[in-house]
C-alpha cells in the first residue's frame, strides 16, 4: 500500500502530527512518502472552478488542514477513484485568535483581497470535517 503524506508545514503540528509518524512508518519498511509544501506534485484538472480529475499515484493520501476550495473538491474526486483520503485538522480553525497570523489568512471575512490585490481563497469554511 502506497501512502503519501502532505504536511501543512515542516514545524510544530506539521512535524509532530504528520512528518514524524510518517518517518517511523517508512523506517519500518512501509511505502510512505512525505511531500512538503515546496515539493507538492498533485495535478488537478479544473474546468472553471470545478475539479474534474486529480492525478496522484497512491492508495492513501493524508492531507493536513485543507482550506482551499479546489483541494476540498479534490478529496471527493480522489475518493471516487478509490483513493483513501485522510484529512488532519489539528485545530478548531474557527477559534483562531485574531492575534495569530493564521487568523488573517483563514478568516472568511478576510478572503476578499491580499496585499498584492489578488483574491484570497483559503478559508476555514472550506475545511473538510
Walk me through what this model shows.
The chain is built from three helices and six strands; from the N terminus they run E-H-E-E-E-E-H-E-H. It has 129 residues and is an alpha/beta fold. It has a single domain, classed as Rossmann fold. The strands form two sheets. Strands 2-1-5-6 form a four-stranded parallel β-sheet, sandwiched between helices. It has a two-stranded antiparallel ribbon with strand order 3-4. It starts with a strand and ends in a 23-residue tail after the last helix. The mean pLDDT is 85.
Brief rundown of the structure:
With 129 residues, the protein is α/β, with parallel strands linked by helices.
CATH class: Alpha Beta
Spatial order of strands in the largest sheet: 2-1-5-6
CATH fold description = Rossmann fold
Total number of helical segments?
Answer: 3
Measured between the Cα atoms of the first and last residue, the distance is 25 Å
CATH architecture tag? 3-Layer(aba) Sandwich
Note the main attributes of this structure.
single chain, 129 residues, alpha/beta, Rossmann fold, two-stranded antiparallel ribbon, 3 helices
Tell me the layout of helices and strands.
Layout: E1 2-6, H1 12-27, E2 31-34, E3 43-47, E4 50-55, E5 60-64, H2 69-80, E6 84-88, H3 101-106
Parallel strand pairs: 1-2, 1-5, 5-6
Antiparallel strand pairs: 3-4
Amino acid at each position: 500500500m502506497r501512502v503519501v503524506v502532505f504536511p501543512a508545514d515542516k514545524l510544530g503540528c506539521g512535524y509532530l502530527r504528520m512528518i514524524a509518524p510518517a518517518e517511523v512508518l517508512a523506517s519500518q519498511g512501509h511505502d510512505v512518502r512525505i511531500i512538503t509544501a515546496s515539493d507538492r506534485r498533485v495535478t488537478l484538472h479544473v474546468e472553471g472552478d470545478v475539479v474534474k480529475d486529480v492525478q496522484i499515484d497512491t492508495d492513501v493520501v493524508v492531507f493536513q488542514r485543507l482550506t482551499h476550495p479546489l483541494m476540498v473538491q479534490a478529496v471527493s474526486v480522489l475518493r471516487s477513484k478509490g483513493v483513501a483520503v485522510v484529512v488532519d485538522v489539528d485545530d478548531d480553525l474557527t477559534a483562531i485568535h485574531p492575534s495569530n497570523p493564521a487568523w488573517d489568512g483563514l478568516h472568511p471575512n478576510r478572503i476578499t483581497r491580499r496585499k498584492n490585490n489578488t483574491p484570497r481563497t483559503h478559508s476555514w469554511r472550506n475545511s473538510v470535517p
